[in-house]
């Protein structure tokens, strides 16, 4: 049986009358990268700050390593590394001094691994932190986190401010953690980042988890885009319930198909003399928009 490293059950958080978290339930298993996605303001950072014991929950339960995130925060923090989306550093210390301080606070030391990461992320560690751009401040925190021997790594929008080359380095390092059997909770709104690295994802909207599962599971619920050229008109396909957005010009047709009905549509296409066919699987962005649009329609219908 898979061991859960993070367990959240019906977590709630109120700020006065505003309910930031209404119902968050998810688990992060040992050795997996869990992607936590949703637009800004959906509740990602509030959930993470509650997990870190920075905020006290208003309801529900949250544990890390089987320990309560509020009462056992000190013990939990000895086994995790965290990078927020906006890192504030001591302005008069150099980048190198801050990295060493972060490591010391976590009971760790500067190692050859730290030097390797400094080189990879191309950080000038001799400069004072007050001179750093947002991207360089993120690099300081990422180098310290990846240098730390932890059991759980929590990243909250960690690549904000990084250029695409540095994003690539970040992704490589997360995949290396995964290969080493570490657990990662990654909050992001960069869908390609999540798509590349994550085993499972949770979608949060307005303080509620609206879907969790593997990308493969969710793709079954989305649609494959088809572009096809046939010798005979494919117009009859438009009447099939699994076909959406059908458009035809001469012998060229484009449409989307519910993935679970792909075989049925291919069977209907076969007698039409297929000359060329291209199928594009749904991206995480497609899934994300579909879930969000469905929920928008559902909530609007209730008003």
Structure, explained:
The chain has 303 residues and is of the alpha/beta class. The protein folds into two domains: 4-218, Rossmann fold (3-Layer(aba) Sandwich), CATH 3.40.50; 223-281, Alpha-Beta Plaits (2-Layer Sandwich). Helices cover 34% and strands 31% of the residues. The chain contains ten helices and 14 strands. The protein has helices at residues 44-51, 73-77, 95-105, 112-120, 134-147, 164-179, 191-197, 215-219, 262-269, 284-302, and strands at 4-15, 18-29, 33-37, 59-64, 67-68, 80-83, 152-156, 183-188, 200-205, 208-214, 223-230, 243-249, 252-258, 274-280. Strands 6-7-8-3-9-10 form a six-stranded mixed β-sheet, with helices on both faces. A four-stranded antiparallel β-sheet has the order 2-1-4-5. Helix 3 (95-105) runs parallel beside helix 5 and helix 4 (112-120) packs antiparallel against helix 5. The longest helix has 19 residues, at 284-302. The radius of gyration is 23 Å and the shape is elongated. Residues 297-303 have low confidence and may be disordered.
Main beta sheet: strand number and arrangement? 6 strands, mixed
For the record, what is the CATH homologous superfamily label of the largest domain?
P-loop containing nucleotide triphosphate hydrolases
Name given to the CATH architecture of the largest domain = 3-Layer(aba) Sandwich
> What's the number of domains?
2
- The radius of gyration is 23 Å
Helix content bin: 25-40%
> Can you count the beta strands?
14
Low-confidence stretches: 297-303
Strand content: 25-35%
Straight-line distance between termini: 43 Å
Secondary-structure element order, as H and E? EEEHEEHEHHHEHEHEEHEEEHEH
Mean pLDDT: 89
Can you identify the CATH class of the largest domain? Alpha Beta
Task: Please name the CATH topology of the largest domain.
Answer: Rossmann fold
Number of helices: 10
3D shape: elongated
Q: Largest sheet, order of strands side by side?
A: 6-7-8-3-9-10
Tell me the structural class.
Answer: alpha/beta
């Amino acid at each position: 049986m898979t061991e859960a490293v993070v367990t959240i059950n019906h977590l709630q958080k109120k700020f006065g009358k505003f309910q930031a978290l209404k119902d968050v339930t998810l688990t992060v298993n040992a050795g997996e990268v869990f992607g936590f996605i949703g637009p800004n303001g959906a509740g990602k950072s509030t959930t993470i700050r509650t997990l870190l014991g920075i905020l006290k929950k208003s309801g529900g339960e949250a544990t890390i390593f089987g320990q309560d995130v509020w009462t056992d925060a000190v013990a939990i923090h000895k086994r995790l590394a965290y990078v927020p989306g906006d890192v504030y550093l001591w302005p008069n210390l150099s980048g190198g001094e801050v990295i060493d301080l972060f490591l010391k606070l976590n009971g760790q030391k500067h190692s050859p691994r730290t030097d390797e990461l400094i080189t990879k992320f191309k950080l000038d560690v001799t400069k004072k932190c007050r001179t750093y751009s947002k991207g360089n401040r993120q690099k300081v925190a990422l180098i310290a986190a990846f240098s730390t021997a932890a059991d759980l790594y929590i990243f909250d929008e960690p690549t904000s401010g990084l250029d695409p080359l540095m994003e690539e380095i970040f992704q490589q390092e997360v995949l290396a953690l995964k290969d080493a059997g570490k657990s990662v909770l990654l909050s992001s709104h960069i869908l390609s980042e999540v798509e590349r690295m994550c085993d499972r994802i949770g979608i949060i909207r307005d303080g509620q988890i609206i879907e969790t599962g593997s990308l493969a599971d969710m793709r079954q619920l989305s649609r494959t885009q088809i572009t096809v050229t046939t010798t005979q008109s494919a117009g009859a396909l438009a009447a099939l319930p699994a076909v959406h957005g059908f458009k035809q010009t001469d012998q060229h047709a484009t449409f989307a198909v519910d993935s679970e009905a792909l075989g049925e549509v291919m069977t209907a296409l076969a007698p039409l003399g297929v000359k060329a066919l291209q199928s594009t699987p749904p991206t995480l962005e497609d899934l994300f928009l579909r879930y969000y649009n469905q929920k928008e329609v559902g909530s609007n219908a209730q008003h």
